[in-house]
Amino acid sequence: MPINIPKNLPAGEKLRQEKIFVMEEDRARTQQIRPLNILVCNLMPEKEKTELQLLRLLGNTPLQTNVTFLNTATYASRNVSKSHLDTFYKTFNEIKHRRFDGMIITGAPVERMEFEDVNYWEEITEIMDWAKINVTSCMYICWGAQAALYHHFNIGKFELPRKCSGIYSHVITDLTVDLVRGFSDEYVAPHSRHTSVSIDDVRSHPDLRLLSYSEEAGPFIIQSKDTKHIMITGHLEYDATTLADEYIRDVEKGEPVDIPVNYFPNNDPSKTPKNTWRAHSHLLFYNWLNYYVYQETPYDWHFVDDMIEYHI
């Protein structure tokens, strides 16, 4: 089934070239079905790249999805044109009256800051609180995962001695959980961050389940026991060259960064890296959309509102 995107979104043509089934809004409105409505709060600086990465994964399932992009009102993005934001993004005030089946909050380049010092922290916490009632299931990526762990579960982050960057091996703690259904016993995934969370804090929290971790990179896939919150501390959505682009950017800035581990062939940055995590990226998003969104979300949100009003 297709993913429904705004007309003329730049990612659309690239998705078509990759044979991802996309449908623009005008055509989608003629379909006599109930598509899933997914909200993407995109906090990454290069928004168009992140749009493409996430749409590629959301569009490769049998479920038809409508995607709404959300941008912060309290911070003006500098790496994307205002016209792109005005055309393809909404602010929270514009969508908070709606219900969504799923929501994704991406990473953000603010991980070294205290959460309360981030200038859009109050806005993000308002969105996360709103989502408790208005969204069936939320997925949080990298800094988004740390923000959710801090806000919802009071688990803080700590700075690493060196940036965690590269492709790391992970294991699954329970293969019977729907989110990791079909995963290999051991698989690889990208990480790119300066901070982490304590694996012991996650394991000991009564409302959380640690589903996957890396001996080197720490906790990776964390799920709340009510399945409303899915925290992914790495970047399964990354393209093959994303870590290379980040490494080159950091080197040009003069930052003391190491070559991403297990990434470049022969550890040589002049060689083109391969995507060795693609299958599990698609599997994770497929499982989330199917088991945690589609299977759980109400067909008619108005019926839920009526039931809440009745019980009140």
Automatic annotation (TrEMBL):
Catalytic reaction list: L-homoserine + acetyl-CoA = O-acetyl-L-homoserine + CoA
Record's GO cellular component terms: cytoplasm
EC number(s) recorded for this UniProt protein: 2.3.1.31
Residues annotated as binding substrate: K163, S192, R249
Any one Gene Ontology BP term: L-methionine biosynthetic process from homoserine via O-succinyl-L-homoserine and cystathionine
Pathway(s) per entry: Amino-acid biosynthesis; L-methionine biosynthesis via de novo pathway; O-acetyl-L-homoserine from L-homoserine: step 1/1
Superkingdom of this protein's organism: Bacteria
Enzyme class: transferase
Site (Important for substrate specificity): S192
Pfam families per UniProt: HTS (PF04204)
Site (described: Important for acyl-CoA specificity): E111
Active site as annotated: C142, H235, E237
Keywords: Acyltransferase, Amino-acid biosynthesis, Cytoplasm, Methionine biosynthesis, Transferase
Molecular function per GO: homoserine O-acetyltransferase activity; homoserine O-succinyltransferase activity
Subcellular location: Cytoplasm
Family according to the record: Belongs to the MetA family.
Function: Transfers an acetyl group from acetyl-CoA to L-homoserine, forming acetyl-L-homoserine.
Name of the protein: Homoserine O-acetyltransferase
Biological source species: Lysinibacillus telephonicus
Lineage: Bacteria, Bacillati, Bacillota, Bacilli, Bacillales
